[in-house]
Automatic annotation (TrEMBL):
Stretches assigned to the Heterokaryon incompatibility domain: 66-233
Family annotation (PANTHER family): ANKYRIN REPEAT DOMAIN-CONTAINING PROTEIN 39 HOMOLOG-RELATED (PTHR24148), HETEROKARYON INCOMPATIBILITY DOMAIN-CONTAINING PROTEIN (PTHR24148:SF64)
High-level lineage: Eukaryota, Fungi, Dikarya, Ascomycota, Pezizomycotina
Name this polypeptide is given: HET-domain-containing protein
One family name in Pfam for this protein: Het-6_barrel
Organism encoding this protein: Hyaloscypha variabilis (strain UAMH 11265 / GT02V1 / F)
InterPro entries: HET, HetReg/Transcr_Mod
Amino acid sequence: MASITPEITGSKNFYTPENAHFYAANLYQPLEPDVDNFRILEILPGNDSDNIICNIIQPFYLDTSYEALSYRAGDPRDIGEITVNGQLFNAFATLFAAIKRLRYPDKSRLVWIDQICINQSDLTERSSQVPKMRKVYERAERVIAWLGPLSGGELAFNTIHSFYHDYLRKNDLLNQSHIHPERRGVVWEIANEYMKDLEVASQKKNNELLVKAKALGKLIHSEFWTRVWIWQEIIVAKSVELVWDTKSMDSEPFFTTAEMIVKMATTISFDQLPKSTTAVFKISTCRLICAIFILRRHWDPESPLDHKYLLRKVRQAQSSDVRDRVYAISGLISPNYQIIPDYTSTPATVYCRTAWSMISRDRSLDLLTFCGHPTVQSTLVLPSWCPDWSTKSRETRHPLSDRRSDYRLQPTFAASRTRFQASKNIPSSCRMESVNDKDTGFQSFALVVEGLHIDIVEEVNENPVVHQYSDAVYQELLESCSRIVSKRRTLTEELKREVHRTLIVDNYGSLKNSDPRYSPNGKHSAKLDAIQGGRLFFISPTGLMGMAPPHVQPGDLICVLFGAKIPFLLRRKGEVYILIGEVYMSDGYMEGRAIDEMEVAFRRLFHPKMWFKKPRSPEWFEIH
């Protein structure tokens, strides 16, 4: 079979193996954009050593039975050759392996595969087909999640089924005892038993349990789970089958095992285990898997998911095209946001228009809390008010308006779990304007917002960053901040408690201890964030205390913007402003004191607690 030298073809930031010869054959028939018709790949039968031969069936309608493939594309330089409609086609190597594994020896198999069923050389078709992908995966008889060839795959398979067997057995025993078990309780019990066994096993050499844990870690941390598109592909599916090597299983045992691993990781003492097994307990991937599982359980096509929750989660995922960080969730959120894929627009334009669509339709500026300092430097040039979904955000610094939610909860409820209401019920009053960026010369977008200027930052506590938490380190930070406060206010025990409340950002505005949903974990994470420099303590000339992003500077403006639960810092730049980030403020401003002062000022009534000399009145801020 003749070989084609693979070269990377970039189409507006999307990278796929070079297939110029294939596209030149004009095999793709146009698809009607307003009709639910697609193409499907017919994988012809063959044995393991046979060349892979396929045919594209077009048009294909969704009332016919088919399967859909979910896979991680990988490096476009790494390919496998297949034949499609008599023409050579360079498939991603991961896709080549998947097709070879899925091919039947004696009959054809109909599978929807994005790299082949969508004409990747046609930007217009790509833009029109992406909004239909939810229907493709929703109506497929089965979604096949290809995890790839994995060493120790069979052992991992047996380990997962062992976990799940224990779960079902304990569940049945409780039901037989007329005890209706809560899923979390059963999972906790099995996780605790396994941890005890693992700690004992770690004291022995070549123990079977340790080998199983290592194999399980490779499966759990497959790069497949970091792919951004799997959120939609798995959440909406009728049925999900996980496939790797020669093994396959239903998704339920796998997701239950991931949930157990998260439980185990919350109680594990890593210094008691061999390094070869600790990889399985790096829970960031497990949390993503569990989040997908929870959403899949509660998925209702008539009830869209919370867009802010999804956008925060997918920042930890990966995609070859940064625009897909937005487009990949467009089928899961309300169609009212009108996020219409357009691969002819630049990523910066896509992000700005998406942000504005959400701000204008929600009449809320809470999305601005996602504008922060990422862990990876961005390659995009964005205005300061537009979240950069192309980069990972800090793991320890979660938006104050969207408090870190327990992955067991339905994420659509997460946004309401805060007491903070800085602007009360006043909706946002803003507009987006097209401007020319003076620094780059490119077209950009400005957000013009209305709000109140409260105060300015006068002094910032530049505490040394400490990566290991301890009560002594936190106490030292508390004393340092208290000394700054004592320069402007008499330091009473009550005020010192207010300093502590400020440092832990009032536990992210969570509900009080009397509420059963209250979690003390928020306090610990807030303390950790403070000593690690995720937020810095500051004070204003009038003695207001706060916690701000680490790039805060003296002179930054403290503002309450209408339509935002959280105050923000703005920095003047000539006649416009730059958004620095969200800010926690003391003395009641998180609960709406600024709005109370404004309303009192409007009525020109005396207010004994007012700290300002002039009546507070709204201003307009043009944010670039």
